[in-house]
Amino acid sequence: MRGSEFKVQSSKSAVAPATSQRDGVQGEARRTPAFVRYATIYAALWKNSVAREMGFKVNFLLWIVVELLWFALQLTFMAVVYQHTDHIGDWTKWEVVLLVGASHFIQQVFQAFFLTNVTQLSELVRTGRLDFMLLLPVNTRFIVSARQVDLGGFVNAGSAAVVMVYALVRLGIVPGAAQIAGFLSLVVAGVLIHYSLMFLLASVSFWTVRAQGIVWGYYSLFNVARLPDEAVGGFFKVFFTFAVPMLLVANVPARLLADKLNSPFQMLLVVVMCLACQAAAELGWRFALRHYTSASS
Amino acid sequence: MKKYWQVINIGIQNTLVYRVNFLFRVLFGFIPLVALLSMWRVIYQGRETSVAGYTLAQMVSYYLIMTVVDALTAVNEDDWQIAADIKDGQISQFLLKPIDYLAYRFCLFTAGRLIYAAVATLPVAGLILYYREAFVLPPDLATFGWFALSVVMTALLQFFISYTMALLAFWVLEVSTFIFIVFAFEYIAGGHLFPVDILPPAVLDVLYLTPFPYQLFFPVQIYLGRATGAELYQGMAVQAAWVIVAFLLARFVWSRGIRRYSAVGG
Hints:
Oligomer: heterodimer
Number of helices of chain B: 11
Radius of gyration of chain B: 20 Å
Helix content of chain B: over 70%
Strand content of chain B: under 5%
Number of domains of chain B: 1
Structural class of chain A: mainly alpha
Order of helices and strands of chain A: HHHHHHHHHHHHHHHH
Shape of chain B: globular
Largest sheet of chain A: none
Shape of chain A: globular
Helix content of chain A: over 70%
Order of helices and strands of chain B: HHHHHHHHHHH
Number of strands of chain B: 0
């Protein structure tokens, strides 16, 4: 088991030699650039996800209702808080609405691409179904992380965008093209931060077998991400900025849109933290995979 | 009665099988709480007045006591398990045994809460210690007695409502959306995010017509000495009434559901 999984791992972009030998397409597959091959696979996974979602249309719509309700709930909370104060640190009411919107936007895009897959990793380990993933002639981390797409997430990200636009109108701010481009790049960085940290936590399931508590525990950190960074201080702030950058993920893009960045250095910090998280997740994954002992056989 | 003790025992052991998982869940749950408390501190900074009658100390105590009550009473995975039992046809075996499914489930719920409370004791104690200046004790022993009684009723109410929601699995394939929708209302109207009496009075009046404040908020009010005299007795009576209603509803939905049950896969 160990040997073969290592092979699959190390043959990151090329084809796996063992499986394609018996059919004649080996040579052909070798010539296809890795990027094209992965794009084709990903497209097929998308098609599959769409078909899956459309099989349960009512359920699909109900999940959107659930997410909308929880989003409304977060906004209500801030509305109630701002009935009793007019600023938290230097954050005014509509700036915080923008922040909650940005946080929800990032969370929903993350959910669309990754959440289902990452939460299922521990089940794959527990049931031993990871064996089948390891045997596929693609990068295992790719197939584990990208198997399913949750289309509802995109709809919910849309609702978050509407709220952000409304908050900007109330603030009287019209962001420029550079600001929007910067915002979108920060969103990508934020989504990748959420993904890599959650993936890292899910890798713990290689030892504890059941890691859903850990993974859903991370989910509760989203509650921290939508709070204004000035609401917390001391060790908590340092930890959730430089170790687990929860306070950067939504705060920095919201600050950028609201013209209240403390310094451009903040944006750089997001990028640096994003890269650090990627590296940590990849190292953690490789280390964890070496400890995999198939459960079923 | 003895068999139900066995069930509690099994429930405890089941929870302890995946202890790391469990511990993480408990610990992570406290992080947003710390952030919220910190946010309230910032809001109170440089203001003379209280927020809707809460001083900073009372506000901090509210969240701490709310967390304790929640640890003791919140339904964790019971509803998912019940729904799964129905969906997979596992429930057939309980129909054949001289065991009452509601009582069986309640024992598992109790076991889960006991373990959760035991594990949560340490972090909660740490938090209380950290905020010791702000933490208040109940005004007197009688208040604490009423508080304890109300917590028990809160647990019953939480359990019966979740149980009833999970029984929807007799009718629909996927109950999690319904559970999450109800949970959203419990979350905000029950006082998870903020003490509900900082809401405008008109909204509060409407909320008190629902069971939600009695699912968490009410016992905390008793503890803080904010519900006394006639208000206390009336509240206790209403809470008891909701418990009975929820229990009868659970029994009723079960008896209807079991008629539709087709033992898939059983």
